[in-house]
Write a structure and sequence with these properties.
Layout (H helix, E strand, L loop, with lengths): L1 H33 L4 H26 L4 H26 L1 E3 L8 H15 L7 H25 L11 H32 L3 H13 L1 H12 L3 H24 L8 H21 L4 E3 H24 L1
Antiparallel strand pairs: 1-2
Helix pairs in contact: 1-2, 1-6, 2-3, 2-5, 2-6, 2-9, 3-7, 3-8, 3-9, 3-10, 3-11, 4-9, 4-10, 5-9, 6-7, 8-9, 10-11
């Protein structure tokens, strides 16, 4: 009965978390447009941050609940899931992802840089306050580049529709529900791991990472169905940068982070490999269905390795 109770709590709280994040992103987008922010900057910043909001909320809640090892598990698991599962599914469904611009100009090198920086900062098995500040500087640089690109692309719009009162209300409600549902999600994960006798790290890498990556899955698949496959790639790229810099840095201010050796020894190198593979595949401005199948194979391997590590712990 306890298993069913906490499993139900996990499903319900995660569903609320995803729906509240959706409200938050849609409201922020409407308000942003009313303030004259271009769709480009909204996509790169608000949408990317919004789809990473569940990871951030769940990670902060994990630290406050004394389960700080979930933070790195969530970041690494979500980044692998975004590339291997999300891009893999999109490529297989649409047959071929065509990129409208060369992401190697700045976006892909910046993604690689964030992944390598995470690898080296965790090499000593810890994450210091200095490193957290360094990561926040990294996201500021990324946002500064995004705003510069926005100023180069955008045109002055005098006739802008004002945001509705509903948008401001949903922004607040969505934000509150995100934090509350994140706390219940972590509570459910903690209890389920205790009942099942497996580490919370395993659940963080699998169920939590997949659950908090659902916004990326939904946004990317919807974009692909509308023929906007570049948005799918941009969403994954931007979300992974936000995950690495924000989701690692912010929770560390609420308490010290535990860095499980299981994650740094195998899953973090796998995240690096997936990031490099993403860059290689996107080098010719397209990702084919066959490449999508390769990505899905890596995701299957990822899940099997998580299952095996759970058995041996």
């Amino acid at each position: 009965m306890d298993v069913l109770l906490f499993l139900g709590l996990f499903v319900v709280s995660l569903t609320v978390l995803l729906k509240a994040s959706d409200w938050f992103v849609d409201s922020a987008e409407e308000i942003g447009l009313s303030l004259g922010i271009s769709p480009f900057i909204i996509g790169v910043t608000i949408v990317a941050f919004g789809t990473s909001l569940p990871e951030l909320a769940a990670s902060v809640a994990a630290v406050l609940a004394g389960e700080s090892e979930l933070v790195i598990s969530n970041v690494v698991g979500s980044n692998i899931t975004n590339i291997a599962l999300v891009l893999g599914l999109v490529a297989v469904i649409v047959k071929q992802i065509e990129l409208e611009y060369n992401i190697w100009h700045i976006d892909m090198p910046y993604l690689w840089g964030s992944a390598f920086l995470l690898w080296f900062t965790l090499a000593d098995g810890s994450f210091s306050l200095f490193e957290a500040i360094l990561f926040l500087i990294g996201i500021v640089i990324f946002l500064a580049y995004s705003f510069k690109g926005d100023s180069d692309r955008s045109e002055k719009q005098e006739d802008r529709e004002k945001a509705s009162a509903k948008a401001y209300i949903l922004l607040v409600i969505g934000g509150v529900l995100v934090w509350l549902s994140a706390e219940y999600t972590i509570t459910a994960i903690k209890k389920l791991s205790e009942i099942a006798g497996i580490s919370s790290t395993v659940i963080g890498l699998s169920a939590m990472a997949l659950g908090t990556s659902l916004p990326e899955v939904i946004v990317s698949l919807n974009a692909a169905r509308k023929g906007k496959t570049s948005i799918a790639v941009g969403n994954v790229l931007g979300s992974n940068i936000f995950n690495t810099y924000i989701v690692m840095a912010v929770p560390s201010f609420f308490g010290p982070l535990i860095i499980p050796e299981t994650v740094t020894a195998y899953f973090l190198p796998m995240m690096i490999a997936m990031t490099i593979l993403f860059g290689i595949m996107a080098n010719n401005k397209k990702i084919t269905r066959w490449e999508g199948l390769v990505l899905l194979m890596f995701y299957a391997l990822f899940m099997v390795q998580i299952f095996n590590s759970g058995i041996h712990e």
